[in-house]
Amino acid sequence: MEGIFIAIEGIDGAGLSTQARLLYENLLRRGYRVVLTKEPTDGLIGGLIKAALRGEWKTDPMTLQLLFAADRSHHVNQQILPALKEGKIVITDRYKYSSIAYGSLDCDKEWLIKVNSVFPKPHALIVLDVSAEVALKRIKKTRFGFELFENNRLEIVRQNFIRLAELEKGFIVNAEKTVKQVQNEILNIVKSLIK
Questions:
Q1: Interior angle at CA 101, CA 73 and CA 24, nearest 5
Q2: Overall number of domains in the chain
Q3: 7-30: string of b/e by CB count within 10 Å (b at 16+)?
Q4: How far apart are CA 20 and CA 25, in angstroms?
Q5: Under a CB-based contact definition with an 8 Å cutoff, are residues 74 and 119 in contact?
Q6: Residue 89: enclosing H or E segment and its boundaries?
Q7: What backbone phi and psi angles, to 5 degrees, belong to 4?
Q8: 3-state secondary structure (DSSP) of residue 21
Q9: Dihedral over Cα of 65, 190, 23, 139: its sign
Q10: Which long-range contacts (CB under 8 A, 24 or more apart) does 106-114 make?
Q11: What is the CATH number of the domain that holds 159?
């Protein structure tokens, strides 16, 4: 049996990590074999990316996007595909759509789409949608330092995610609702896939 691949996407502050973790825990409780993963990864390349996002070293936007692609390639081939072959449900907190939505602020969108076209499409792309204003309020409450992308360009990125979800026939979930309401909506999407 082939597994199910779910990508949870959206702007910073939309609650991706919270919702991905809750979905993972919910599915585990129901007896499913589930893998929860995240991009950028905790691997060597992922570490380089995180350091660049924190401003610990500088590089150009194209190099950064190629690092994201290299990290993703390793992630897909070492973690995601093997788990799917074992029939597991794989949930990723961010995936290739983040590279396109954020990366196109500084790089050519068509180039980003082409670079990321080699990676498998998830069975479900779930975009958690919040306004940039709400996202920034949430980020300010929970984080001490803003990362590279957490600024007024967030609204452009939000629109990019909405367009990608429409293009990929993904699901757009209003993430301004309560954590529980958002989780219930995500669970309903996943249940329909499992059937």
A1: 60
A2: 1
A3: bbbbbbbbbbebbbebbbebbeee
A4: 9
A5: no
A6: strand 89-93
A7: -120, 130
A8: helix
A9: positive
A10: 106/61, 107/61, 107/62, 107/65, 112/65
A11: 3.40.50.300
Burial 142-162 (b: 16+ CB within 10 A, else e): eeeeeeebbeeebeebbebbb
pTM of the model: 0.93
Nearest Cα to Cα of residue 147 among 29, 67, 54: 54
CB 157 within 8 A of CB 110: no
Spatial separation of the C-alpha atoms in residues 4 and 193, rounded to whole Å = 8
The closest of 134, 159, 143 to 53, measured between CA atoms, is: 143
Exposed/middle/buried for residue 117 (C-beta within 10 Å: 0-12, 13-18, 19+): exposed
94-109 pLDDT, tens digit each: 999 999 999 999 999 9
CB 90 within 8 A of CB 83: yes
| Domain carrying residue 32 | 4-194
| pLDDT tens profile 130-161 | 998 888 888 777 665 555 445 578 889 999 99
